[in-house]
Predict the structure.
Amino acid sequence: MLGLGYIYMKCPHLKNTDLFLQLDKYCKILALGLMDLGSGSPTVVDTILTEAFTGETDALLESIGLLSSCLVGLGDTVSTPLLDRICNSSLLLDSPHLKNVFPLCLALIYTSNPKSEVIDTLEKSLTSGDSDSNALIALGIVGAGTKSARILRILEVNFANIYKDSKSSSALILSQGLVNLGKGLFTLSPLMYEKSLVSDRGLIGILSTITVFLDQSLFPDYSFLCYFLTLSISPKYVVGYEGTCRVGKPSDNVGLAGNPNKINGTVVHSLPVILNTNEKAEVDDEVLTAYIEDVLVKKQ
């Protein structure tokens, strides 16, 4: 199912082809989300959810439908909170499979972006019983590479309650490792260039790992499948031979006249410097790249 979905990734023009129409309903719904990856199209989200939740209850189909709709809003600042509310609303159906997939949806939307309200929601999910391992893994993915003290405290507090459960204890250990990923030097987020581009390799690693947890029987016996996450690991630091750079929050300067500031609330740091979520770096020296990603190469 994943392999067929990846074939159609970012290819919306293939929707009406004979090959697409011959797919089964599971592959078709996943392919719809991957075709319009990051577009934020409400029409596509409505189509996906209508096909997934119409008719008799199908646990896998509804789970794939929620994940696929999250793919459509990935990186879109307008669609993300709307999809967050849609996923929360699905819990009103009181279905065990939706409770299991809900933490995974949050992990996909907020990868390496530990917002306080998301952490609150995942912490509450830990008390639901069957979704313990999914909530733990979601906490690890949301806080991956951030060394979030709050997430680490939640994991430590819950250790005494779950250490006898092999499935949950394995998920907790994996989650702790993700939060401390590279001692805070790396991230799992597939969003690049100020969230204007979704990394194909990064998304494949995250989505492949998340689908492992749709089947509760696969973890921890097949925990080696979580190595898919290595595809998503990327640096979140700026390295230079010498000098300084300014770090701050990116500002929206679309349509503004003149030469407006691209970042605000700047703080000057000596290189190298770690960029946290929603931060951007800027230098005065001439560089060989238009964007600062991974390594900063200055012109001589």
Summary: The domain at 2-235 is CATH 1.25.10.10 (Leucine-rich Repeat Variant).
